[in-house]
Amino acid sequence: xxxxxxxxxxxxxxxxxxxxxxxxxxxxxxxxxxxxxxxxxxxxxxxxxxxxxxxxxxxxxxxxxxxxxxxxxxxxxxxxxxxxxxxxxxxxxxxxxxxxxxxxxxxxxxxxxxxxxxxxxxxxxxxxxxxxxxxxxxxxxxxxxxxxxxxxxxxxxxxxxxxxxxxxxxxxxxxx
Length: 176
Known about the structure:
It is a single chain. By secondary structure, the chain is mainly β. The protein has a single domain (about 20-170), classed as Beta Barrel (Porin). Helices cover about 10% and strands about 50% of the residues. It contains two helices and nine strands; from the N terminus they run H-E-E-E-E-E-E-E-E-E-H. It has helices spanning about 5-10, 165-170; strands at about 20-30, 40-50, 55-65, 70-80, 80-85, 85-100, 110-120, 125-135, 145-155. Strands 1-2-3-4-6-7-8-9 form an eight-stranded antiparallel β-barrel.
């Protein structure tokens, strides 16, 4: 038994609890306050998404920052609706913490981000997306002006399941 081979196999083999799980990282950029145009800013967003293969519900963690130091951080859910092999529509709902920085005052630190996203999936599993989102405190604060963003993004799968021959050789230690 070669200990290096065993370590290499263990490092590349998917863990049992990860079998069938999908994970991705999405980077997006766009236009903050695109609708009202009162406090426009450049927005950058990072999202981590996790779910199960062939199941539409996804967990979503979001961090968004504008060029005037506005920050939104939250966690919620997305529901991916496939429109054939390549296209998908994904509504997303994320409650989270909002800090206005030097930007738009939304009236409360708890905000709710509602988003609709259209994505095209490439052969390797990465996606290009366009999304429209709305940020609102739902009337919890003394004021609730809301805000809309329009972004374009790129989503990268983080881990791929090993192919059946690769899983077999990792399990048995034999290569073909």
